[in-house]
Amino acid sequence: DYATIHRNSLSLIKYLKQAGLKFAICYEDQSIKHMIKGGKLKKVQEVTHAKKEFQWLAKNWFTDPAYLKLKGKPVLLIFGPQHFKKTQWSQITSNLSTQPLLYTLPHLTTQANSAGAFGWPPVDGGKNVTPVDWQKYLRELYSKGAKGESIIAPVFPKFHDIYQQAGVHKSYGYLDDQNGKTFDQTLELAWQSNSELIQIATWNDYGEGTMIEPTKEFAYRYLESLQHRFATNGKFAYTPIDLRLPIMLHQLRKHHAGNKARTASLNHASKLLFASKTA
Fold first, then answer.
1. For residues 98 and 63, is the Cβ–Cβ distance under 8 A?
2. Which residue in 103, 106, 100, 99 sits closest to 121, CA to CA?
3. Alpha helices by DSSP H, the chain
4. How far, in Å, CA of 86 to CA of 111, rounded?
5. pLDDT tens per residue across span 259-274
6. CB 138 within 8 A of CB 156
7. In this model, does residue 249 exceed pLDDT 80?
8. Do residues 225 and 187 make contact, with C-beta atoms less than 8 angstroms apart?
9. What per-residue confidence (pLDDT) applies to 179?
10. Measured distance CA(68)–CA(197) in Å, rounded
11. Which of 36, 49, 74, 259 lies in disulfide reach of 62, CB 3.0 to 4.6 Å?
């Protein structure tokens, strides 16, 4: 599915830029391992293949004004590393004209030429992660930041994967959402940290229960909580009602499909939403 994901990423970034947002990439190097295992790539080609991928990133995205930069350098997350070792990372990034700031998972910073670490819901071994557990994990992470290491502060709502029920593999574990308190508390801790960046640690991954997008089960709980955090930090122009506008637009498009006049009005409404003119 890599080609499909790539096409969708290009489309997503196009609309992020239209909305005036920035973007950054998270590179998952275990994809190389899977390509070798699947016979799509030879082991001896792995570094060369990764170098080409990073050259493409540098050419097409790192120089983009909308790409997220810190101290003038593009921010690049590595989910792991789970495949390449430190000497290989040096080879992969050595000839890039624009050197990215690499961020890895906290326990793997020595496996790459890492600028720092980003946190993740600390599930492991199928265990039930208690608030005491994840608070200890975050305290240790932020203590690294206090000592000068660059940390991307993580915020997460919960973790509840479907892998065991789906027969894929054992569950990574479970982290309860405490009726929304987990999200609020991790957000507050991130806000109070000295981190320059905060990441809501989710790919909106419904299969892992880390989504913050609206669901029938949780409604707009997490997005409203995020709004509230910004509202209490100063001037903020948006309300919970505004969060409902995209789905209203989607439903109206379906209802008026084929009606040119209505579609033209809805296209105009879409442009207003992209311009943050919610009224």
1. yes
2. 106
3. 2-18, 30-37, 46-57, 86-93, 131-146, 163-166, 181-192, 221-231, 240-243, 245-255, 260-274
4. 5
5. 999 999 999 999 999 9
6. no
7. yes
8. yes
9. 95
10. 10
11. 74
